[in-house]
């Protein structure tokens, strides 16, 4: 096949491209320039899309022996990922920008352009597997598994995707990169949100949304316990940084339970009030075979690297509804509900949807 390898400048995408060559594919490397004002140097493991990353990707392509190009997708990334991120926080939700980037950029804009140019598929360094049945599965390296952020992909997008690293651990990938002479073998992984290089999400949002003072209120009594300068700075399950005026009667910590943009309030309460048993999610994407007609049993994951919870799930009225077998905590609107079917060959992604309400 003629495939396009998305090369970020990191070790995973470099080894994925090399493995695609070894598999006999006709491979072309492409680096996505996503930052409007790329910095010259990374700050440790923070940030991406720097000039250094582009150079690392080019050097890796040279070692592998494949053609290499840079595609400027900064405006599309800013509109579909960065602006969406800010708008979601302004609406009281907690988005996952990696989900949106995969959905809108890597497997929509890039894949569409690749197909238009005559490529058959896109290869990436994501840690996930596509079985012979075409179903998306977890990586063998569970701590590095990225199937959660790939669960937004449609069936037609998965059919044109290759994930060569799903059967390897991260340690194996780094060792292979060193054996191949790739300089990125020891390059640190990028952490946090790629377009917030210093990791200060609150500052980033404040610069774009401005200060908007409001109250922090007690869920049980409605009493005002403190003030905030912007509800966007909080997320469900947060405990630190609340600066409340008075402690709880039992002396235990309080946690953020909800954010209400209409009244500009942040509601807090005890840890047990975070328990959620019912989750409703919108815009479902189903890739795990024919969609079931009624309720079915599966496991659900409600945030990246979060715990897996057994549940009864149903697709109804354009939504995915999950009744959890045991309560989950820290469930935030804007995150994804991903349904998995346990399988001896690796848990299979059935589908996903964006979390709206939870009770």
Write structural notes for this entry.
- It is an enzyme of class 2 (transferase).
- One of its GO terms (molecular function) is tRNA binding.
- Helix 1 links the parallel strand 1 and strand 2.
- The model has no long low-confidence stretch (mean pLDDT about 90).
- The protein folds into three domains: about 1-125 and about 165-185, Rossmann fold, CATH 3.40.50; about 210-270, SH3 type barrels (Roll), CATH 2.30.30; about 275-359, Translation factors (Elongation Factor Tu (Ef-tu), domain 3, Beta Barrel), CATH 2.40.30.10.
- The strands form four sheets. It has a six-stranded antiparallel beta barrel with strand order 12-15-14-13-16-17. Strands 3-2-1-4-7 form a five-stranded parallel sheet, with helices on both faces.
- It has helices at about 10-20, 50-65, 75-90, 95-115, 145-150, 155-160, 170-180, 200-210, and strands at about 1-5, 25-35, 70, 120-125, 130, 135-140, 160, 215-220, 225-230, 255-260, 265-270, 275-285, 295-300, 310-315, 320-330, 335-340, 350-359.
- Helix content is about 25%, strand content about 30%.
- It is an alpha/beta fold and about 350 residues long.
